[in-house]
Amino acid sequence: MNGDFSAVFFVLAIVAALVSLKVRDLLAAAALLSLFSFVVALLYVSLGAVDVGFNEAVLGAGVTGILLVIAIFNTCRRSQDRQHRGSRGSALGRLVAMLGLVGVGAVLLWAMAGLPDFGDPVAPAARHLSDRMIEGAYHDAHTPNIVTVMIADYRSFDTLGEGIVVFTAGLACFLLLRSERRRDEDGPGT
Amino acid sequence: MTLESPVQIAFLAAGGVAHESARLVPNASDLPALILVPLIVGVFLVPLLGLLRRRLAYVTTLLILATYAALALTGLRTVLDGSAIHYRMAGWTPPLGIELALDPLSAFVMVTIAVIGLLVTIYAGAAVRRETPEREVAFFALMVVMLLGLSGMVMTADLFNLYVFFEVSSLSGYALMAVGHRKAVVSAYRYLLLGTIGASFYLLGVGFLYVLTGSLNMADVAARLGDLAGNPALSVSLVFMVLGLGLKMALFPLHIWLPDAYTYASSTSTAIIAPVMTKVSAYVLIRMLYFVYGADWSLSELGVGPVVAWLAMGGVVWGSVMALAQQDAKRMLAYSSVAQVGYIGLGLATGHPLALTGAILHILNHAMMKSTLFLVTGSVELSGGSRRLGDWKGLGRRMPLTFVGFTLAALAMVGIPPTSGFFSKWYLALGLADSGQWALLVLLILSGLLTAGYFFRVLERVYAREPREGAVQPAGEATAAMNLPVIALGAGTLLLGLFNAWFVGRVIAQALPAGLNLPGVS
Amino acid sequence: METVTHFESLRPLWAVLVSLLAIPLILLSGERRPNLRESWTLLAAFVKAGLVWSLLPDVLDGRVAVTSLGTIVPGVELALRVDTLGLVFGLVASTLWVLTSFYSIGYVRGAGEHKQTRYFASFALCLSSTIGIAFAANLVTFLIFFELLSLATYPLVIHKETPKAIDAARKYLSYVLPAGLMLVLAIVMTATISSQQGLDFVPGGFLERTDASAPLLRWLFLFYILGVGVKAGIMPLHSWLPAAMAAPTPVSALLHAVAVVKAGVFGVLRVTGYVFGPELLQEIGVWTALAWAAGITLTVASLLAMRQDNLKRRLAYSTVGHLSYIVLGAALLSLASWKGAILHLIFHATMKITLFFCAGAIYVRTHRENISEMVGIGRQMPVTMAAFAIGSLGLAGVPGINGWISKWNLAAGTLQADEPVFLMLLVLSGVLNAAYFFPIVHQAFFRSSDEYPRFGEASPLMVVPLALTAVVSLVLGLVPNLGAHAWDLASKAAVAVIGGGS
Amino acid sequence: MEWLHLLVRHWAYALTVLLILIGLHGMLLKRNLLKKLIGMNIFQGAIILFFIVHAYKDGASVPIWSKALGEHAERYMNPVPHGLMLTAIVVSVATTGVALALLSLIHKRYGTLEEDELLTALRADREEV
Questions:
Q1: What is the C-alpha radius of gyration for chain A, rounded to an integer number of angstroms?
Q2: How many domains does chain C have?
Q3: Which residue of D has its CA nearest to B174?
Q4: What is the pLDDT of residues B72-113, one digit of tens each?
Q5: Model-level pTM greater than 0.95?
Q6: What would the DSSP string read from start to end of C58-91?
Q7: What ipTM, to 2 d.p.?
Q8: Between 3.40.50.12780, 1.10.287.3510, 1.10.10.10, 3.30.420.10, what CATH number should domain D2-128 receive?
Q9: How far apart are CA B91 and CA B98, in angstroms?
Q10: A114:B232 CB<8 A
């Protein structure tokens, strides 16, 4: 795999993200978000994370996109993205938010000096746990895909949690959307 | 592959239970997993039985939480000698696999969650049916899910696993927060956005830690941090942890989601979420600061301690002042939560064993007080009253039992001895004094006045005023099932206060991180 | 110095608990069975007084009863210990509660007060806290009961639930709660700097010069005085007290003339004598500040008292002044001044409660509160007004009544401490006392008014207690050592704190 | 100059940071609630990317065991972040699902997803529970 090749996907992803936040047609924005996810999925693959890439393509680009589109059809298509009408509180809020963004960016860039180089094969993360998994996975589980061994065996508890998260989302939607149906039967809310 | 783990765990649980019945003694080494089993089973069992008969959901939840509470108490008793039980999920040694750790601190928080969860559930039987009609099954199931998520967060010794359970509890929390008042959906949405930022910041912090150490197990990470002290990336990881957890625990000024969310959610939602959700985040922060990063480096050397301490104090003052200005009981309590979380933040940021003791004690303490108070607002509303404090005049005579609980909890909030509220502040104050933080000490003491201001205002109305014409008044006393938890929790604050020395000596002294020892406790 | 032995006993604990246990019984009896309810109060009052009195022989023999209830915070026990000073306060409060209980019954029934159950329950809680304060063995125990007392008094101040009462209650809280917090602050600081672990009260003080720098100790002393000084009515912290006169008169009589304010004064004695101790106070030099605060308070309060037309308010200002006598005695740190202070703690209680009882009796009979409306009342309520005369003469320091003895000792104390200026203030204040009390007595007996219908005395439930306290004041003035051995107790406590020599 | 060096060596990280900021910007400053959600997706995607970027090893292959590569750890990408992020992606989609349920409720109740209009509507909504 060639890491430098992924630079292209990076740039594409950034463009897709920016445009998706910019456009006022929400449907287009949703489509662009799907595109973003898809590009990111390609990026994952180009970085050697095939499983994550597939997952992102299916869930990120696919499921999220579809959910968004359904939601948009149920609500409204246009985003006004209007500049707020200058209430002082919200102007202050924007200022604080901007400052927060700048702060987060600065802090993250400052961290750069302490991080191992991109692609460094002897970085701590590349050695400790990683080595033990790569060397032990096939031996332990007789499955060639190390990531599969990891999520299904070494860290199966995470996967249980993941299952519960999905289940929770289902329950949450049930709790929320069911209520609305009842309200409709009662008559439209004001 | 998703199915494999529940099966594994169920198998494990069956094994554990069989073992137990054979020897009539719980097998202590299985306890960490065993405690979670009822909740994991409950997540699936509650909706399943609920589909059969709606009422079964409530009963099942009650049984499951009772089992959970019993197990959590057993767990606490087992580790009170200061030991810790480590359980390897699926049998893999950490850091390869995920480890659950039951030590005095996690057992203590677990018991807090369990007890509050159980008592609120007793209350919820009637309340949920009224507040979220026809959706009790989902409501109770989500409640169990949330408690599972929180318990997972408390027990896991793995940084990423903690994130997963973080999200489990958050997602169910968002949903629970969205039922209630019509406006609740909007506040829940805001909560979701900010909560996601919080969780993601935490994840980012984990990312940095992983990149620097190559490990995810807390103990392992802590051991491998040794020579990284000067690394900016390590500092940044801590910053994001504090920001992320600060958001979830509503540390000032990251509390902005809280007042609306607590005000508009249904009374049961608030009563279950307000006491435990922010506290568990505080607990995780304690874990990170003291057990992973090490307090010497994180609080003192990096200077996070003073910053968080002063922000927390800012939260105490701001929350109290805002609470003073509220006319809506729930909103007042919500702001008071901001203030009370400030006390916890203050204690954990000071780095002094006594202050940390105060913070840990306040976790339980505030959980009890706040759930009592929110339950009382719920009782008033469900009995036909209003949340407007102006309409609370004369309620003391109309709902005498309910307001016994309220009064006890309010006095504890103000910090009148011998309620527990006094003692958590006492330890905080001792810690601040001993570490020479005079300014914070004086502010801490004076903040009690603000709290007194908004609670005595209510007590005066409740007991010494006549209801005005046309006030929305409750029909009468709440039901026994609603009053039982209220009184039990209110009395709990008194008992915890009277026996705080025992409690601190037996439980919290064991829960303190190594190197921090309480003076006067052997 | 004689030897002191300690012995375990549950009597101090029962003395605290007995009125606490009466509360559920009072609540259960409720408004529907007032006689049963009141019998609980009376029973508790008698048992409590009996328990406290039973400790008197022990204390006189130098044996100190101790009850330990286990650790309350690490290193500090929740413990009761009946030392001489504590017993003095306990005797005063518990004995007067018996009389006040009878009087209360007469008063609330006569005045037709509402929510009488809450009233009696709160009263019982107040008494438990007061005895707890008296017997507290260490600072933390003291603090717990001190705060409990603040809280328990609140329902009594707000009792009438009129706008005036509500305002008074707010004012009361806004004084005593910050004070309580100051006390917490002070105790936290003490726990941090002191080398003594248990924070136990020690005659002569347990703080030492080496514990902290002098400025810090001065701050600490200030926080203590702010903490206990509000209840002790030291100016400018006094103004809750006249406002609290909105409460029913028995409350004013027992709590705002005896229990609550004396708890404050008692706190001053504890802090000066048992926490700091005379030596340390001399060294850091704060005693003069306290003495001046007390000296100014007792003068100004007497002046203000003259301007009050409302009888209870006048008595309240008089109380403020007399509390400062005690504070002054404590601050002067001499043997005689301490003896005088402790004696005044007892004697002022008997005299002032008489005066309040009288004010209440007049109110119940005539519904008049203002002095200007009480012209000639002595002819209709002769017993009441005779008692009033005894009380006020005593407070003014007329020989033969017990106030004279304590004042004499205080005066001697100023000379022992070589501070004659305070003697001048004492004398001046005595004159002012006379100036604001005598006109009341004079106009009651020697001026007649035609506007009165016939009133007659109030119910015996009220008249007997007030006559009794007046007689007690008189008798103690002649034989101060009778019964409670007040003189011996005061001497013992003063010697313990100041030491026999100086 | 040193900064530039750093930037070159960490270009992938720097671009990830940029994505994080874009996502956060959308969440915090967009006035449409759905746009905020899109921002959230970008933000979460960027954090996932952060992990994947740090799993990359120069000259390594995908973490699937093969005889040709043998048990030489340095020849495979770091599988740990990959496994973690599989979970994280699911979590992020679940969150989006709940958020969308909330959004449709908000729209049903208040008829708008614009923050400004929503604030006005909320202020007008005085209904007690």
A1: 22
A2: 1
A3: D98
A4: 999 999 898 888 888 888 788 888 889 999 999 999 999 999
A5: no
A6: HHHTTEEEEEEEEEEETTEEEEEEE-HHHHHHHH
A7: 0.89
A8: 1.10.287.3510
A9: 9
A10: yes
